[in-house]
Write a structure and sequence with these properties.
It is a single chain. By secondary structure, the protein is α/β, with parallel strands linked by helices. About 25% of the residues lie in helices and about 25% in strands. The chain is built from 12 helices and 25 strands. The strands form 7 sheets. A 5-stranded parallel beta sheet has the order 3-2-1-7-18. Strands 9-16-10-11-12 form a 5-stranded parallel beta sheet, covered by helices on one side. A 5-stranded antiparallel beta sheet has the order 21-22-25-24-23, with helices on both faces. A hairpin with a 2-residue loop joins β21 and β22. The chain starts with a strand and ends with a helix. The model has no long low-confidence stretch (mean pLDDT about 95).
Length: about 450
């Protein structure tokens, strides 16, 4: 590679690719452009910084910019934004403090991430109205909450961000109201999980307003209210968390094709439709492990893993980025909820004939102290018996979703999962782990 490996974006996918490329071949020149100042940070930890469980924002940084430059020999250029890609000439145009220059590349990785969706609400510009998708936003929210005597917080959106930020606001003794336009929170987790999470949120004082659409926010300079269809309710701080959209404009303007999800289309190695151009992370599609179809799941592991694989590929070791299952887990106070694969409705849309069961079982032997009830839902295809997906929810043991995910990656049937030799000891599990119990019941239903 005569020209350098150039990376656009300095977070999970970008810095994983850059670091892996240098480890695999120290002679390769690696240039990374990051338009902000933060790189390689744990975005998933931001709600816990706002809550106060993480003391310092810098604690969320995995590797500092200076460490990348001096210890890993990566030419990291923060505060410089790539504004154009020319795949034919194999150069990118960079804006650095208002001055532009061109940077040639041998291989290029587009890792531009995603941005928080900002609905067309009136009052989004008011002081005290925030999204939370980068470190500066997290810092601004923490400052706003801790430096003022706030009474009421409005959370708009009942997804991961909404649930986590509701907990964060409650930790500051602020009255929390969560607004969700759908019938339930955590829509991708299914109704069974949502019902448990909603009940738990209410017991912790979160006021849920389901099937309630927000139209905007009121206030002179600082927010003081949330506009609903037929009333305006008070709010001293607002967090808008209605999802993210992939940052694809740069790639699309360069003629790089987008996939059916609206993210950048890639093959199994992360290659785009432009020669020598890869894409990874929240801006790119992946391949779903169950359906084999393109999917867009903007999560941390997906980004890190794809970036690492591309770093190997560009240094001569072609490495697949891996398939995705949409595995996710969220904390709601002292409750954990997790999901993976396809649930019933998704399975039906994908052409399967889904059958599901839901069971509740203790996370430990019944006589051993400290156990909690775990609710497990598993979904399988009626004809083949193949496992399609599942959810778990409870005060302990939500990470058991990983067992279900591994079964999906292995293409296991429900019977094969039922016969898996999982570990047993009373402090950790009953003889029949809750996942095995669910598989056993579902296998019986398929007979």
């Amino acid at each position: 590679m005569s020209e350098p490996f150039v990376v656009i974006g300095g977070d999970a996918a970008g810095m994983s690719a850059a670091s892996k490329a240098k480890r695999e071949d120290p002679s390769v020149d690696v240039v990374v452009f990051e338009k902000g100042e933060w790189v390689s940070y744990a975005a998933c930890g931001m709600p816990y910084y706002v809550k106060g469980e993480v003391d310092d924002l810098d604690d969320l940084v995995t590797v500092t910019p200076e460490e990348f430059r001096t210890e890993r020999d990566i030419d990291l250029r923060t505060g410089e934004e790539v504004v154009d890609i020319d795949p034919d000439a194999e150069v990118v145009t960079v804006d650095a403090d208002g001055e532009t220059y061109e940077q040639p590349y041998g291989e290029l990785l587009v890792a531009t991430g995603a941005s928080a969706i900002e609905p067309p609400f009136d009052g989004l510009e008011l002081e005290g109205v925030f999204t939370i998708h980068d470190m500066d936003e997290a810092d601004a929210i923490e400052d706003y909450v801790t430096e003022r005597d706030l009474e009421t917080a409005a959370i708009v959106g009942g997804g991961y961000v909404g649930i986590e930020m509701a907990e964060a606001m409650a930790a500051h003794d602020i009255d929390v109201h969560l607004y969700e336009m759908l019938p339930h929170v955590l829509q991708p987790f299914g109704e069974d999980v949502a019902n448990v999470v909603e009940e738990h949120l209410r017991t912790h004082g979160v006021n849920l307003h389901l099937e309630t659409a927000v139209s905007g926010f009121t206030g002179a300079k600082r927010v003081d209210g949330v506009e609903l269809e037929d009333e305006t309710v008070p709010a001293d701080v607002v967090i808008v968390g209605v999802g993210v959209a992939p940052n694809v404009d740069l790639a699309e303007d360069a003629g790089i094709e987008l996939g059916p999800t609206g993210a950048i289309a890639t093959d199994e190695y992360g290659r785009t439709t432009a020669e020598n151009v890869f894409a990874a992370g929240d801006c790119a599609e992946g391949r779903h492990v169950v359906t084999g179809d393109p999917d867009h799941v903007p999560l941390a592991l997906t980004a890190n893993r794809a970036g690492r694989a591309i770093g190997q590929t560009v240094t001569g070791d072609p490495t697949p980025i891996g398939e995705i299952a949409g595995t996710a887990i969220v904390k709601a106070f002292d409750l954990g909820a997790a999901r993976t694969g396809l649930l019933e409705e998704q399975g039906r849309e994908a052409g399967f004939d889904p059958v599901s069961v839901t069971i509740s079982a203790s996370t430990r032997a019944h006589y051993y102290p400290g156990g909690a009830e775990l609710t497990v839902t598993l979904v399988a295809d009626r004809e083949s018996g193949r496992l399609l997906g599942g959810t778990v929810v409870g005060r302990e043991g939500a990470k058991r979703i990983d067992t279900v995910t591994m079964a999906l990656h292995a293409g296991m049937t429900v019977t094969e999962l039922q016969n898996a030799d999982l570990a047993y000891a009373p402090p950790f599990s009953p003889v029949w782990d809750p996942v095995l119990t669910a598989a056993k019941v579902l296998a019986g239903k398929l007979e």
